[in-house]
Amino acid sequence: MTAVLTSAAATRPAPPSAARIGLARVGLELKLFFRERQQVVFSFAYPVIMLVIFAAVLGGDERPGDVPFTHYFLAGIAATGIMLTSFQAVGTSIASERENGQLERLQLLGTPPVAYFVGKAGQVLVTTAAQLALLLPLAHFAYDVPMPADPQHWLTFGWVAVLGALAGTVLGVAVSALRGSAASVTTGISAFAIVLQFFSGVFFGFLELPGWMQQVAALFPLKWLTQGMRSAFLPEEAGAFEVAGSWEHGRTALVLAAWVIIGAVVCVRTFRWRRGEG
User: Fold this and answer.
1) CB neighbour list of residue 223: distance below 8 Å, 6 or more residues apart
2) Bridging pattern class, strands 67-68 and 62-63
3) Kindly report the CA angle at 221 between 201 and 173, in degrees rounded to 5?
4) pTM
5) Cα 226 to chain center, whole Å?
6) Chain segment 198-223, per-residue pLDDT in tens
């Protein structure tokens, strides 16, 4: 009898790895995301609507360096769109999933936390790409905003977008652990996101902000994500009108990567499957 049990255990297939579960969850997270019609419409419509409104009101203005407002503003609205689909959407969705018991069921099924995080990150990267694929052609053909001038600028656009999306994702996971109901967590995340947009120069020229706002904004990833986006869309000489007098690509990459690492560590330490844990 013991030999039979030993043989059965030996032939039993090994459980899937966390990486395999995570890849499978990417597809599932995308299905869940697109089932939430209000979230989908808001995520994709918000950047477009903001571009249309601000272009209509301030389209004739210029930023430092004789840069048309729409050219300058596209970088900010692309950055805030990325933070919308990562930080804000992830944080609110996880709080809701925890409250309605979905996370508890995943824990009972043996889902590793890292696999759950991978699923969220993959969903964010795909939806971010789709969001930008909608926004950029509109800006180019409707408002004559030039796209990145060469492969190097497109590469900059790519790594800035990916690092920004990952930073927003892990921070969204982290803030979802805040105490309170899903509604209260959603309210807090949304309010913080709105304030951060104004501090980070999304809607205005960054140099037009008070010095203390610039210093606070430099602590968070949205400021660097927005600056990195400007470096991809604007002429090289426009970098002279940044705070440091250059685009600071090295510092941008360092800050965004640091936030990815910091956020991941916080996620591991604070993530809760159930309300009241920890």
Assistant:
1) 199, 200, 201, 206, 217
2) antiparallel
3) 130
4) 0.90
5) 12
6) 888 887 778 888 889 999 999 999 99
